[in-house]
Design goal:
Layout lengths: L3 E7 L2 E6 H22 L5 H32 L4 E7 L2 E6 L6 H29 L4 H21 L7 H14 L2 H28 L3 H32 L3 H4 L6 E2 L5 H12 L3 E6 L2 E7 H5 L11 H4 L1 E2 L12 H10 L4 E6 L2 E7 H13 L3
Helix pairs in contact: 1-2, 2-3, 2-4, 3-4, 3-5, 5-6, 6-7
Length: about 375
């Protein structure tokens, strides 16, 4: 289970740090304090290396955050919704609810990231010149930040998906072919090629004694390969779900249970016996909400005899719903956007059925097994 913490909100976007970020923050600070700054400034006291190293690490990740904010603000200006930005071990990622629906939108959304990194580098380089005669530590910090942001911008311009340059390449191919899946397949192939280059380069660096740098480069290569493959599979999944409706995915025969039904009885007589995962909670025909397997799993087993369905259910007023004609991508967006496990399908104020995450997974697995 991934762990992250919300540290703030900027322009209406939640900012999170992943648990892995703590690892890279410590490693980055150690490299700055033990190698980079001592090599150029041997006369500094030892404590100063660590203070300057920590400040540099914080400002570097602030630069990464600025890069991702640029993507997010362009996405918002184009009518997209940004769930949050998460900083993790290999940088940052903006979690945009839906992919751009036009090639031109993706082009501008992708290109603004490296452009922002180069702009940050220019500002840092200017601050380096201003601060050089005033404060040597401050000048050293901004000199490094100028260098690393140029490197960050250049790296992201590599034409391999899912890097920004790969997204730019995909948008261009998409524009000329009109085929997003084909464009993603080509851009992802470039992304995997760059991934193998990074892995090989990292391995050679390790053989030459640059163990830490080699491990870092190999990690980047592994991440690129994984992300490129995952990106292509996500496009295939979206294309698959685009042609299916909520009424095709939903379970129609939803059993109802009373709100005072003990959770233990719900498990024994309904979940295990009938192998259903979601149930309508209703009292004398009055729908109170929906309870599903994931709700039950949140309750400790020793509480099952005393807890009742009405206590663990998702209340009707809190339910996120879809209509029978909504496509599979909208259903999936509702599930992932709200971090919920089931979506009721409503028509005329009545529940027609329920779509669970597992229903979508089973649908895709069935098509895959049939070679569709």
């Amino acid at each position: 289970m991934k762990v992250s913490w919300r540290i703030g909100r900027i322009f209406g976007i939640d900012i999170h740090i992943d648990a892995s970020w703590l690892v890279i923050f410590g490693l980055f600070t150690w490299i700055m304090a033990s190698y980079y700054f001592p090599s150029g400034n041997p006369h500094w006291p030892k404590w100063q290396y660590w203070v300057v190293g920590a400040i540099t690490s914080i400002l570097f990740f602030a630069s990464v955050l600025g890069h991702e904010l640029a993507h997010s603000l362009v996405a918002i200006s184009q009518g997209e919704k940004v769930r949050r930005i998460t900083l993790f071990i290999l940088g940052g990622v903006a979690q945009i609810t839906e992919e751009p629906k036009e090639a031109s939108k993706e082009f501008f959304m992708a290109f603004v990231g490296p452009l922002t990194s180069f702009a940050i580098a220019a500002v840092c380089y200017g601050l380096f010149f201003v601060l050089r005669p005033v404060s040597e530590p401050s000048a050293a910090i901004f000199r490094y930040l100028a260098f690393i942001n140029v490197l960050l911008g250049a790296f992201n311009l590599l034409p391999g998906f899912p890097m920004d340059g790969g997204r730019v390449l995909r948008s261009i191919i998409w524009k000329f072919t009109g085929n997003l899946q084909k464009a993603t397949r080509i851009a992802s192939s470039f992304g995997r090629a760059f991934a193998f280059i990074f892995i090989a380069l990292g391995f050679l660096m390790m053989l030459r004694g640059l163990f830490i740098n080699g491990i870092w480069i190999m990690m980047i290569g592994w991440f690129l390969y994984s992300a490129a493959s995952q990106g292509y599979h996500q496009v295939i999944m979206r294309e698959m779900l685009r042609h299916v409706r909520a009424q095709d995915l939903m379970v129609r025969d939803i059993q109802s249970v009373p709100s005072n039904l003990p959770v233990q009885k719900l498990v024994d007589e309904f979940i295990l016996k009938h192998r259903d995962r979601a149930f309508i909670v209703a009292d004398k025909g009055d729908i109170k909400g929906i309870v599903c397997l994931e709700d039950v799993k949140k309750i400790p087993k020793d509480k099952w005899p005393s807890a009742v369905a009405g206590e663990v259910m998702t209340p009707r007023e809190d339910l996120t719903t879809v209509s029978p004609d909504d496509d599979g991508n909208k259903v999936l967006a509702q599930l992932t956007g709200k971090s919920i496990h089931q979506v009721p399908v409503m028509k005329g104020g009545k529940i027609q059925g329920v779509v669970c995450r597992t229903d979508i997974l089973h649908f895709m697995q069935l098509r895959s097994d049939l070679g569709i």
